[in-house]
Write a structure and sequence with these properties.
17 helices; Amidase signature (AS) enzymes; alpha/beta; 13% strand; 11-stranded mixed sheet; binds glutamine
Length: 484
Amino acid sequence: MLNYTIRQLTAELAAKRVSSVEVAEFFLKRINTLGKALNAFISVDEEKTLAAAAAADRLIAAGKAGPLTGVPVAHKDIFCANGWKTTCGSKMLANFIAPYDAHVIEQFNAAGSVIAGKTNMDEFAMGSSNETSFFGPVRNPWNTETVPGGSSGGSAAAVAARLTPVATGTDTGGSIRQPAALTGICGLKPTYGVVSRYGMIAFASSLDQAGPFAKTAEDLALMLNAMAGFDARDSTSLQREGEDYTRDLVKPLAGLRVGLPREFFAEGMAPDVAKAIDEAIAQYKKLGCEMVEVSLPNMKLSVPVYYVLAPAEASSNLSRFDGVRYGHRAPEYSDLIDMYNKSRAQGFGAEVKRRILIGTYVLSHGYYDAYYIKAQKLRRLIAQDFTEAFKQCDVILGPTSPGTAFKIGEKSGDPVQMYLSDIYTIAVNLAGLPGMSLPCGFDSAKLPVGLQLIGNYFGEAKMLNVAHQYQLATDWHQRMPQGS
Ligand code: GLN
């Protein structure tokens, strides 16, 4: 059961060789032991999980199973789930019980899956290491001295350690792909607008997108089938024909043009990462792909552009946490302003405060044109680079992260170093493109290396095809951490 994919699990359930309750019990046991040691979860509610599993068993017995019926899914604690504590990794929301379901949760419920718990994350999804969580850092199951990446580090660690077969996350600048890379699993960020943001606590609304974590590309496709779809409650949700994201998985890759951005390979990658990526390129050549050099000349601007735009949006989105409308309220205060000040000072951690200060500054009168407007213009140029590149290739390939998992505490004192760990992922969010990470090897310390694929707009099925064919030819995705 430990390594079952969605198809294997649903086949066992359909054949009644195992019940959904037994599956839930199996994974809950792991969550309550190994999961505690990794600090991967913020909320576990056995009663709710087992009740949902029992309901799934009744559906299966009645012959009414959906595509994910009985499959446990751990959700990042950024998604509101009715009756579940939903904290966003913050003291600000430490006692918030969501009174409704996010669209993503509704979709998974409709597909029959069982909520396995809510996973730990960087506070308000700000971070690349999971060290900014009010609930403490998550540990990487490959080496518990190291970080799992962030901000969806709890979900990534949970899938890597087989605490749950699959999980959800969100990606504003890399928060699905980078933790997937650092924990040796697969993670996908869809084209902006494909998955509704309704009920997903907002960080930077023009960049935020939800996506799946799994062991295989095929599982990602099955999860995306459940997650994607129009939702009138999110004004940026796209109204499109439904897609079956598994439809292209089996297509051979012969003749596929794979773009290698010159700027990705210029400098900055750790030697072990570069070696693993080179080996992946060789594998793709064997599969009949043609390598094409492309250029993303403005990519170097993506981290500075992101750190103007994302904090600007965050400062606006987080203004609602004032102790009145939402969030923690200071127990003692003298007047209204003092109450706001104290509530926000107590409720938010250092990284969130840093972002709110930067965002307020770049949006302020006199600086708005110089920073915010300028960054918006550069964002357009970054997106145009991709449009040009996709004239010459079908998919772009590169590393997900410049290095492998780093030690807990190693970068937390230096925000700029931390921000640079998203150097290869952030441009994809700025352009609104789909991107994914899949495991492609290990470094000399036996820590996983992630391979990034970037698709053109709505190129998810193609990207998943490219990943699946690689997984048919290699076995990196089958490796699991020792002790798990
Ligand atoms: N690490 C980036 C940040 O701190 C991206 C986070 C994310 O994608 N949510 O903002």
